[in-house]
């Protein structure tokens, strides 16, 4: 692993455990077993490191879930695989950074980053616009194949799907139900409503 990748990996751990404000560059350098000057060689400011850390996570997660939409399988399989990817991503953050707190809503660090740094908001917005476009195209194809009701507006369905995806952690938290089970149940109900 390169020093730069090690810095990003350790930054990810510390930023998620402690947050942006509570994490220092000295602490990250110590975790990487390099000097603070060595850290500055790769990142001039903590803000730069934070932005790259969060955008790399968003990009990684975006690619994982978008790959489901882009697969050449039936639409039902694609959306259920999408949710399984969302479950894997969420569980990854719980197991690594959640400190065993099952009820924690893991999106907190992402929400904070998106609010605080316009570059992260813009990056995330581009991911979402891309995802919605791909989802709309996939829904149109599913309608042409007779999988999804033709009378439903593809763009509205894509927005509904994204809203479900984003709302699931909160629904799970507030209803005190296991995220995995709730996610599968809700997407199953969504599919029953839109299928032809």
UniProtKB/TrEMBL annotation:
> Is-annotated flag, keyword DNA-binding?
yes
Residue intervals of the HTH tetR-type domain: 1-61
Task: Tell me the SUPFAM superfamilies matching this sequence.
Answer: Homeodomain-like, Tetracyclin repressor-like, C-terminal domain
| GO molecular function terms attached to this record | DNA binding
Q: Which Gene3D superfamilies match?
A: Tetracycline Repressor, domain 2
Q: DNA binding happens at which residues?
A: 24-43
Q: Which UniProt keywords apply?
A: DNA-binding, Transcription, Transcription regulation
Pfam families noted in UniProt = TetR_N
Q: What is this protein called?
A: Transcriptional regulator, TetR family
Origin organism is Methanococcus maripaludis (strain C5 / ATCC BAA-1333)
